[in-house]
Design goal:
Layout: H1 2-25, H2 42-48, H3 53-71, H4 77-107, H5 117-147
Keywords: Membrane, Transmembrane, Transmembrane helix
Transmembrane segments: 12-31, 52-71, 83-103, 124-142
């Protein structure tokens, strides 16, 4: 039972809190009179530009650290190759996420009202960030639990 709670707490603090806490806390700005108007739809707007990928990048870096630490203690060449593949996998997501975040940052500059073609790219960035962050959270958890 203690082992289960330990694993559940790791999942909560290393995956759940980084992903959900910023999104859950942003609507609290609505309680402030100063930010009330600006806070309408702020949780969706924060995810639209691919900003959730910053969390994915940090989870990939943590996974690379854990895998790199286990690489020296690999019992066989096959295990070492699998760990190296995990490093490449997470490294690929770091590069991909960084590129997508830079696109979202470049697209966030003010533009004229009524440009509907831009809404398509915002949705694409949002869905890409959600899918990639989900994949990274799953692969980070799998790599952590397989190493412990």
């Amino acid at each position: 039972m203690i082992d289960f709670l330990s694993r559940l707490s790791w999942l909560f603090f290393n995956v759940g809190v980084p992903i959900l806490a910023p999104i859950a806390l942003l609507p609290l700005l609505g309680f402030s009179r100063f930010y009330r108007r600006a806070s309408k739809g702020i949780a969706i707007r924060s995810v639209q530009g691919g900003q959730l990928l910053w969390v994915g990048i940090s989870m990939c870096a943590s996974a690379c650290y854990e895998i790199g630490g286990a690489l020296g203690n690999a019992p066989s060449d096959g295990a070492r190759a699998l760990l190296f593949a995990g490093l490449v996998w997470h490294g690929m997501f770091i590069v991909t996420s960084s590129i997508i975040v830079s696109f979202g940052t470049a697209d966030s500059m003010p533009r004229a009202a009524g440009e509907n073609s831009e809404k398509v790219s915002e949705r694409l960035l949002m869905w890409a960030s959600l899918v990639i962050t989900t994949l990274v959270a799953a692969s980070y958890s799998i790599s952590h639990y397989s190493l412990t």
